[in-house]
Structures are given as C-alpha cells and as structure tokens.
Amino acid sequence: MKKKGFTRRKFLATATTAAITTAVSSPFASSGLTLLHKRHNKLALLGGAPVRPSGPIGPPWPYVDEQMVDAIVKTTRSRVWSRIQSPHGTVPTFEESFAALIGAKYSVGTGSGTQALSTCVEALGIGPGDEVITSPYTDMGTISSILTSRALPVLVDVEPDTYQLDPDKVEKSINKNTKAIMPVHIFGVAANMERIMSIAAKHNLKVIEDACQGPLARYRGKGLGTIGDLGCFSFQASKPIACGEGGAVVGNDEALMDQCYTVQNHGTTRKGSNTTIGPKYRMNEFEGAILTGQLPGVRERFETRNANADYLTSKLKGFAALVPQRHYPGTESGAYYHYGMTYHKEHWGVERARFLKAVAAEGVGLGAYIKTGLHREPWVDHILGLKSYKAMYSPARLKEYKAGMHLPNCDRISDETMVSFAGSGALLAGRDEMDNIINAIMKVYENREQLKTL
Ligand SMILES: Cc1ncc(COP(=O)(O)O)c(C=O)c1O
Fold first, then answer.
1. Does residue 54 sit in the same domain as residue 180?
2. How is residue 253 annotated by DSSP?
3. Is the bond leading into 56 cis (omega within 30 degrees of zero)?
C-alpha cells in the first residue's frame, strides 16, 4: 500500500526544514519531511552522487582513551593480575562501581556475558530435566548458558515489531519442568518485563534477565538487569561498555549473589571453602582495568546515544515503510546496541537486500542483524541426538520440543524485515550524520522505482 504524498519529500533535521514541513499539509507533517533537491534524484547505485562518502558513522569502536591505556599500564606494573590477589584490585572496584551505575546492590564480574548467564543458571540450581524459556532472536550465548547446565532451552516466538519474547507464548510454554524465564532485552531495549514478571510470579518461576546488550537502559524506574532475580551483561568488544571479552551478573539478593560468586570461582566461596560445582569464569584484572578506566564517560555516551536514537525515531515518525523498534510502555531509555527498524516491503516494492545495497551505496551501512533465529541452527538436532538429553527427557517431550521450533515471527524478522545498525559508535556521531542516515533512507525511498530496474 503506497502512502500518497510521501514520495516528494525527504527528512531533514534543521530548523529551516522543520518550518517548511509544518507548512506542508499531509499525514506526515509532524515528521520533518521536506522537498527533495533535484540533484538527489539518481541513486548512487546507478551512478548518482551519494548522500555521504562511504565509511563508518561515528567514532571507531571499541572506545579507547588515555585513561584506559593508563589503567592497563598501571595494572601491568602492579603485578596484581588476578582478582584473588587483592580485594582492592580493578575487578572488585569495577564490580562495586558497575552495581551502583545500574542500580543493583551487588555485581560479580565474569569472563563474558555467556559466562554470566551460565553462572546464573547454575547458581539457581537449574540442571538436567529442567526447562528455561527464552527467545530465539538472540546471540547463541543466551542458549549456550542453558545447554551448559544440560537444561532444555525452550524457544518461544517474538513479537514482530518489538523483536522481544511474546509473553502470551511464554505462558503457554510453561510446564511442570519449567524453572525460569530468560528474557532478552534485544538491542538494549526492555522486553515486556511487566508481563514477564507477573507470569513468573504466577507460576513461581525465576527470571534471569539477559541484559547483555542493555547496560544503563531503564524501564519503569529500574535499570535493565535489576528487575528479575538476576541480570547479566556482556562487555564483549562490540558492546556499549567493552573490554574485549567480559561480563557481569547483578542482583539484590546477597545469598544468591554469593552463590554466583562461588559458581564462577570454580565452586569455591569467598572464604575459600569448596562447596559446589562451578567452572572458572573469573574476570581478570586487565579486563577490570580497561572497564574501570572507561566508566567516567559511560553515562555521557549513553545519553548521546539516546538523544540520537530519539532524534532518528522522531524523524521516522509516520513513515510506514521503515518503522523503528516498538518500545513497551514504561521504557525510559535504551542502550541501543543496535538501532532496529522493521522493513515493510510492500512500501518499497523490492526485497530488503536490494534496499540495503542501495542505502550502502549512499554511504550508510545498514544490515539485517542475525541471519537466522537460533531455532533453525544445527544445535537443535545435535542435542536431540545426545545420550544425556535422551536420558533426561521422554521421546514424546523431545518430539514436541522439535515441533515447537516453528517460530514464524522470528523467521520473518531475520529473513525479511530487520534493518539495523550497530549503535555503540554510530549513535555517538553528530546530528549531521543522523541526518545523513535519514536522507539516505529517504533518497532510496523516493527513487525506489529505480531499484526495480536493477
Ligand atoms: C543478547 C546477548 N546475550 C548473550 C550474549 C553473550 O555475551 P558474550 O559474547 O559476552 O559471551 C550476547 C553477546 O553478543 C548478546 O548480545
């Protein structure tokens, strides 16, 4: 369905254009659209001038400054390289600062986000025969954390416009073996935590938040990761707070957080007693140093990303062809690991791949994010063939499990509709670059007939 009146305009972010826009009477008058200049009428893919020169938008990522370099040098010279060498090392210091930053009482550092999630599954006593409900639209680390404890990750479909777990489908998937829900705050924007927490309370389930993409983001007065029983973060190199590989668990329950410490410390308590099963998932002091060194600017960068994301969203308002990720009521801010949009092919007349190629030629790199939901990956058949899973779950349950891997919304998002870009660096760029993103999208939209000739 073509929206009339949209073809002659483009998005621009200046006071002048805003003034022009309000003079235009159309269903899109609030969106900041203006007449497109003549020279923009040939797509760069066909030899026209691009909107911007090719190359990354925003500063290179991961972020580096002298304070971080100094912190690494200091740690090297200190010879305190493992967290167990000192209670005042960089890891304990980071744990304290990070907990305060996101509003949790306690934090335990780990070697990755996957390790943080695994630590929580083990600390909550979830194991063989148990089931954990989570999203298929995520990093393999989410699911790996459940598999590592030989529990069963039950994947339920996501909503097409938020890309987050559908709470109705979560509730329908609960059975007597379900022990926990692991919502993923995809792109660092809140899942529907109001519904998920109430479903968990009704069925007496634990909630482990996969907030790996969401440091500092907030929902209904709370930081992501602090709403459920435990929350997990990743500091992998692409994340908004990064140290190469690293992670953290946060929580408010002292005994449970002590158990998390023990699990990630190969089963050894803070006092040195060997009490349980646990791998060695400790964060090391170099990771702690680089994280502690970057904390001073973290909030400012988070706010800049939010301001730029809000700006893009305001510019796309009313544009039915590319719709920003829908946020649930109560979402106060996002970490914007990615800025995601839903591509509506019916408005473009061409497949997403062709649009992505055209917009890239205009100098703006947008992508399709993950290539497939995790329910379509080989690990499913792999675990179904394992002796351990066959011993734990009945043939009927495993058959039903495989049949449940039909998740059409997730398929559609990965195959057809997701358009996104990584926000850690790009959303720190100036407004001129945000305008370039919008103008590139709009230029391709206005000239979409040309795409059909390619
Ligand atoms: C949603 C989500 N969960 C889990 C992980 C795993 O984190 P890590 O790569 O630090 O192990 C990631 C990392 O990309 C992620 O994005």
1. no
2. -
3. no
Residue 1 has pLDDT above 80, yes or no: no
Partnered with residue 339 across adjacent β-strands are 421
Question: In 301-443, which ranges are E strands?
Answer: 322-324, 338-343, 418-422
Atom of ligand 1 nearest to the CA of 185: 1
Q: Answer yes or no: is pLDDT of 13 > 70.
A: no
- Give the tens place of pLDDT for each residue, 138-156: 999 999 999 999 999 999 9
Cβ–ligand 1 distance for 248 under 6 Å, the answer no
112 lines ligand 1 (CB under 6 A): yes
pTM over 0.70? The answer is yes
DSSP calls for 88-149: TSHHHHHHHHHHHHHT-SEEEEESSHHHHHHHHHHHTT--TT-EEEE-SSS-HHHHHHHHHT
What is the per-residue burial (b if ≥16 Cβ within 10 Å, else e) of 266-288? ebbeeeeeeebebbebbbbbbbb
Nearest to 258 by CA among 405, 159, 123: 123
- Give the pLDDT score at 115: 98
* pLDDT on residue 40: 66
Domain that holds residue 241: 66-295
CATH code at position 76: 3.40.640.10
Which atom of ligand 1 is found nearest the CA of 186? 1
Q: Judge if the beta carbon of residue 308 lies within 6 A of ligand 1.
A: no
Together in a domain, 102 and 244:
yes
Establish if 391 belongs to a structural domain.
Answer: no
Task: Give the 3-state secondary structure of residue 372.
Answer: coil
Is 318 part of any domain? yes
* pLDDT tens, position by position, 389-431: 999 999 999 999 999 999 999 999 999 999 999 999 999 999 9
CA distance 380 to 388: 14
210 lines ligand 1 (CB under 6 A): yes
Q: Say whether both 182 and 275 belong to one domain.
A: yes
Mean residue pLDDT across the chain: 92
Contacts for 430 with CB less than 8 Å, ≥ 6 apart: none
pLDDT digits (tens, 9 = 90+) for 20-40: 333 333 334 344 444 444 456
CA nearest neighbour of 325 among 366, 395, 62, 336: 336
Instruction: Pick the residue whose CA is nearest to atom 13 on ligand 1.
Output: 139
My answer on whether 267 and 120 are in the same domain is yes
- Pick the more confident residue, 216 or 37: 216
pLDDT of residue 16: 33
